[in-house]
Design a protein that fits this description.
Number of helices: 4
Shape: flat
Radius of gyration: 19 Å
Number of strands: 0
Helix content: 55-70%
Distance between the termini: 72 Å
């Protein structure tokens, strides 16, 4: 007789990731709304961008996927600083 095996298609890590809401998601959505409303002129959305930066600073690196761009930007700045000496 055929024995059906249950398969877990999600790893433990990705399942936990799905359960945890991104703490800075709201700010990221606000940036998208602002950019759309202002014809994608970043200069008009500096206040909401700053709010996302503040949110990202409150959490450890890697906790908020929407902050990964800011984290990469900071790493690049540090690399440029250390190579320019």
């Amino acid at each position: 007789m055929y024995k059906r095996q249950s398969k877990n298609y999600f790893s433990h890590f990705s399942f936990l990731d799905m359960l945890q809401k991104d703490p800075c998601q709201k700010q990221a959505c606000e940036i998208q709304k602002c950019l759309q409303a202002n014809n994608y002129m970043e200069s008009k959305c500096q206040a909401v961008i700053q709010e996302l930066r503040k949110c990202c600073a409150r959490y450890p690196k890697g906790r908020s996927p929407v902050c990964s761009g800011f984290e990469k930007e900071e790493e690049e700045k540090l690399t440029l600083k250390s190579t320019s000496k």
